[in-house]
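Regression test case RT-17, inverse folding.

Input:
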């Protein structure tokens, strides 16, 4: 049986021992924890155990999700071979200068990428239940990523 759970890292303690998400309820608990957690812990790094790994043992993809407890919105970015680097297409009037934090590490998100929290939850659940396929419940747009020196809390971007 294939392990299709998601590995979620959003607190310092999760960097070596990720939180495992197996159900939609687990996803809801994760989003709720981000909304209720400390100030600079409002984003999560997610990988699917159901997807391939690169020959060196790293996942072939990364999903980052940030949420705003004040605005009740969130943003997603995904890097995967089949789509390159994409971010969620925000609702009309969504803001620029979007930034969230994984374990106190700043992550810039694409301008105009914030969507309602219900869609954020739905996209993560689809990512889980599809074994790591690109969620189709939201629209995606291409974006440029930095050289990895600013926003990668593990210093392993490549």
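Golden output:
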């Amino acid at each position: 049986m294939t392990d299709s759970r998601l590995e979620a890292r959003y607190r310092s303690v999760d960097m070596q021992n990720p939180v495992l998400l197996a159900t939609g309820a687990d996803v809801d608990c994760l989003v709720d924890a981000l909304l209720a957690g400390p100030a600079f812990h409002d984003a999560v790094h997610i990988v699917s155990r159901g997807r391939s790994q690169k020959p060196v043992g790293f996942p072939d993809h990364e999903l980052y999700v940030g949420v705003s407890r004040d605005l009740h919105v969130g943003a997603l970015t995904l890097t995967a071979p089949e789509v390159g680097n994409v971010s969620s297409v925000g609702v009309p009037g969504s803001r620029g200068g979007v930034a969230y934090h994984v374990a106190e590490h700043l992550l810039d998100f694409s301008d105009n990428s914030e969507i309602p929290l219900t869609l954020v939850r739905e996209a993560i659940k689809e990512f889980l239940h599809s074994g790591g396929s690109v969620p189709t419940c939201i629209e995606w747009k291409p974006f440029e990523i930095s050289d990895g020196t600013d926003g990668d809390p593990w210093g392993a971007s490549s």
